[in-house]
């Protein structure tokens, strides 16, 4: 019996403004994670291990950062003569051309291509979360349920629930209520931005909604589409019992790095049966020089450490000079902490230089220093600071 024909649409066009300075010059899916990875590596690796060879990536904001990383899709076995990786930038030339105004709007704009593909199931995923999931398992559950959409769900913290689409589900998995980012969530069961749709039925419904609200009114999947499918009894929930972390804010991004530098991280990124793949660079081995102290940290290739590093993540090319101290921090590629400087509970973006004897961060909120910024020698940046400071709107 032939496997169902599956198409995965990876949503990689969002600005990711909640990540502040980290997404000023890169798209959110291209933000580095755990030293050597990018956020988009997680859904693409899931596609690879789920044996789904047809993957489309919808891009818009800062597309060069995504294109540079994905190249031809080889790390995820997507460099194929037939099928494989296809990029979907904004386009002109039809009535559906132009920039997207939300995830549902983006789906509507690509409807003709999706119909032509002729998939049995359309998997729509975001690229700003860290998790492992066999999409084929969700597809099989969806195709046997009679649903128009299957929503993968996870449990979130009470004080975080209003950031997500919140569902209530019956014992048989049928979704009985869906609320998009409600002020007062009824449960802590959230959609984790993985959806399996029946393509033709869903696209027909989108057309009908577009006729009612207009092209600019489609907005996100949770605005009209998912509530309508739920109201008609055609939505099902698929619980994800494993680890899932949305890293769309500075605090959650920093916190997730703390989880992955532990002795037993929540996901084994090198598990032989399900490794997370990325577009690897060419870096020499990390060098821990005389006097270096490294404890409870992730240290990538190409780094040079002569100071003290505790509870931190060092990306490729990071330099920590003699007498410098880095504590509970995330240092992205090419950042440098000069002699005598102290960096605590901070995220340093690409190419940041912290000058001699400077003090960055401390107890309290996470401090963020933007791409290629310089913290002058002797400067003190307090906990929670943003450097450079964002301009007023």
TrEMBL record:
| SUPFAM superfamilies found in the cross-reference section | Nucleotide-diphospho-sugar transferases, Trimeric LpxA-like enzymes
Q: Please provide the record's keywords in A-Z order.
A: ATP-binding, Carbohydrate metabolism, Glycogen biosynthesis, Glycogen metabolism, Nucleotide-binding, Nucleotidyltransferase, Transferase
Q: Which InterPro entries match?
A: ADP-Glc_PPase, ADP_Glu_pyroP_CS, GlmU/GlgC-like_hexapep, NTP_transferase_dom, Nucleotide-diphossugar_trans, Trimer_LpxA-like_sf
* Keyword rRNA processing among UniProt keywords: no
List each copy of the Nucleotidyl transferase domain by range.
9-259
Question: Which Gene3D superfamilies did the record assign?
Answer: Hexapeptide repeat proteins, Spore Coat Polysaccharide Biosynthesis Protein SpsA, Chain A
What CDD domains does the entry give? ADP_Glucose_PP, LbH_G1P_AT_C
Which residues does the UniProt record annotate as the domain Glucose-1-phosphate adenylyltransferase/Bifunctional protein GlmU-like C-terminal hexapeptide? 293-363
Q: Which GO terms describe its molecular function?
A: ATP binding; glucose-1-phosphate adenylyltransferase activity
Q: Which GO terms describe its biological process?
A: glycogen biosynthetic process
Could you say which protein family the record assigns here?
Belongs to the bacterial/plant glucose-1-phosphate adenylyltransferase family.
Family annotation (PANTHER family): GLUCOSE-1-PHOSPHATE ADENYLYLTRANSFERASE (PTHR43523:SF2), GLUCOSE-1-PHOSPHATE ADENYLYLTRANSFERASE-RELATED (PTHR43523)
Q: State the name under which the record lists this protein.
A: Glucose-1-phosphate adenylyltransferase
The organism is Modestobacter caceresii
């Amino acid at each position: 019996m032939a496997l169902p024909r599956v198409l995965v649409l990876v949503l990689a066009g969002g600005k990711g403004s909640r990540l502040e300075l980290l997404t000023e010059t890169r798209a959110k899916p291209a933000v580095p994670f755990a030293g050597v990875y990018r956020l988009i590596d997680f859904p693409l690796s899931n596609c690879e291990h789920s044996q789904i060879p047809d993957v489309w990536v919808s891009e818009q904001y800062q597309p060069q950062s995504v294109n540079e990383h994905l190249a031809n899709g080889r790390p995820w076995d997507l460099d194929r003569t037939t099928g494989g990786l296809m990029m979907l930038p904004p386009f002109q030339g039809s009535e559906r051309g132009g920039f997207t105004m939300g995830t549902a709007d983006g789906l509507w704009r690509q409807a003709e291509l999706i119909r032509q593909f002729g998939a049995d199931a359309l998997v729509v995923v975001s690229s700003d979360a860290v998790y492992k999931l066999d999409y084929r398992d969700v597809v099989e559950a969806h195709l046997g349920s009679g649903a128009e959409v299957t929503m993968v769900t996870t449990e979130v913290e009470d004080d975080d629930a209003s950031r997500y689409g919140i569902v209530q589900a019956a014992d048989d998995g049928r979704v009985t209520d869906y609320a998009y980012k409600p002020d007062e969530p009824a449960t802590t069961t959230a959609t984790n931005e993985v959806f399996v749709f029946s393509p033709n039925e869903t696209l027909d419904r989108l057309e009908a909604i577009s006729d009612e609200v207009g092209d600019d009114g489609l907005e996100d999947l949770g605005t009209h589409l998912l509530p309508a499918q739920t109201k008609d009894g055609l939505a099902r929930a698929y619980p994800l019992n494993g680890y899932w972390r949305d890293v769309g804010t500075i605090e959650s991004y920093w916190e997730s790095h703390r989880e992955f530098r532990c002795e037993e991280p929540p996901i084994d990124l090198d598990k032989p049966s399900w490794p997370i793949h990325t577009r690897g660079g060419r870096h020499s081995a990390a060098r821990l020089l005389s006097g270096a102290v490294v404890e409870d940290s992730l240290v990538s290739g190409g780094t040079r450490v002569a100071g003290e590093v505790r509870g931190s993540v060092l990306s490729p090319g990071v330099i920590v000079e003699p007498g410098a101290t880095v504590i509970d921090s995330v240092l992205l590629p090419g950042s440098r902490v000069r002699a005598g400087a102290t960096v605590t509970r901070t995220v340093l973006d690409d190419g940041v230089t912290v000058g001699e004897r400077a003090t960055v961060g401390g107890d309290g909120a996470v401090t963020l220093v933007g791409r290629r910024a310089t913290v002058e020698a002797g400067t003190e940046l307090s906990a929670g600071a943003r450097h450079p400071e964002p301009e007023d709107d």
